[in-house]
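Data availability (excerpt). The following record was deposited with the supplementary files.
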Amino acid sequence: MKYVIVDIETTGGNPTQGGITEIAAILYDGERVVDRFHSLIDPERMIPGFITGLTGIDSDMLDGAPTFSEIAEELYDFLKGNVFVAHNVNFDYSFIREALKVTGIEYNSPKLCTVRLSRKAFPGFGSYSLGRICGQLSISIKDRHRAMGDAEATVELFDRIFKNSPDVIFQSLKKSNGETFLPPHISRERFLQIPESTGIYYFHDKNGQVIYVGKANDIRSRFKGHFSSSSKDKMQLSNEIHNISWELTGNEFLAFLLEYLEIKRLWPKYNKALKYNSWNWGLYRYEDGHGYVRFQIGKNSGNLKPLIEFESHSEGWKYLMDHVAVFNLCPKLAGIQKTTGACYDYQIQKCQGACCHQESPEVYNKKANDFLTSITGQEGAVIIKEKGMHPNETAFLYFEKGVFSAYGFLDKEDSYSDEFEILGSLKKVKHLPETKYILRSFFPKLSLNQILVVK
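Predicted structure:
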C-alpha cells in the first residue's frame, strides 16, 4: 500500500468557488519517498491580497502556469490507487476532488488526516497545527505556506507516525474505508475476497483450527455482521480469527444442511448448540363415513403423527391451499371451506363434486393419494432440486426417510435417464437424523417440480 501526501494553496476556502494556485504531492511507500508531483496552477480568477501575503503567490508568478484542466489527467494518474494523506485532509481532498469532477474525472480514495493521527500518536500537545506539531517534534519546514514545503514536512510527520505508531494509521484507514469492524488479523484485501454469495463459511485461528462455522445468503455481508457489535463474545472472536474460508452452495437449503453437518463434525468452540423451532401444527389425513379421504390442518397433540409439520397455522394453511389447487381436490374435504352443503368451488365448476357425492370416492381418493405420494419424501426416498452455484447448474439433495444422505451439482445440459443415474453422481454425507428437522422446515416451501420421488 502506498500513500500520497498532498498539500495545496488556493485563492479561498470554498472548493466550489476558490481555485487551486499550487499543488504538491509526494508518494511514500511506508519506508521512503518514491516520487513527487509539483505544479503552480493558473486559478483563472483574481488572487486576494491576503492570500498573496500568506503564500507569496501572486498573479505575476502564475503567468504562463497551466490551468487545472491541463494537469488533471497527470495528477489523477499520480493520485489513483494510493491513500490520500494531508494535514486537515478534508480541505485538500475536497478541493482536488471538486476540481477533478469539473474536468469529468470522478475521484474517490481512502484518506488519512495527519491532524487526527497526531492527536492519537502524540497526545497532550496544546495545538496540532502543522507549524506547532512540527515544532514540538523538531521537524523543520522550508517554505512555510508553500505547497511543496508543507508537503515535505507532512511526509516527515507521517513517517514518524507510521514508524512509531503504525496501529494508529491502520485503524484510522479502516475507519476511512468504513471497515473499522474488521478483526485485527483480517486485511482489507482478504475481506474483499469474501464472496457475496450463498454458502457456508469457516473462521480459523492462528493455527488454522476452525473456531466457528456459519451459513449465509451473502457471506461477506454476514461476516461484517459478526463484528459490527462490541459484545464481549464478538470482541473475543474478533481477536482470535486469523482467516476465513468458505464453501458455496448456491441455495439456502443446502447451506443449512452443510452447516449442521460441519458443526457436528468439527464442534467449533464458538458455535452454540443448534436449536430447532417448535413444530406446533401438522397436516392430518382421515377417511369420513362415506369413504372420502379428508385433510385437516391441526395442532400437534402428540397422539397422532402428522403427515408433515409446520411452524405456524398460516404456513400449513397456505401449503394445503396450494396443493388443493394443484391436485384438484375439494376445498371442503380439505378443511379449507366450512359449509353444510357443496363447496363454493363446486358452484363455479372448479370442484368435481366430492363434497356433494357427485364425484365417487374411488375417483376422488386417487387424486388425494397422488397428493399423499407427493409428500412421502418425508418418510421415503426423495431427490430435491435446488439452485446451483451458477445459472447453468442444478443442485441435487438426496434424503432417505427424511434424513439428508447425499448432494451434488450437475450441469443443466447434462442428460440423465432416471433418478438412479443422478444418485450415482452425488457425494454421500454422514447420516445425522437431526437433518430431518431442516427438511421439515424447507419442504413446505418447495414446488412440486423440485421433488423427485425415488421408487
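Summary of structural features: The mean pLDDT is 89.
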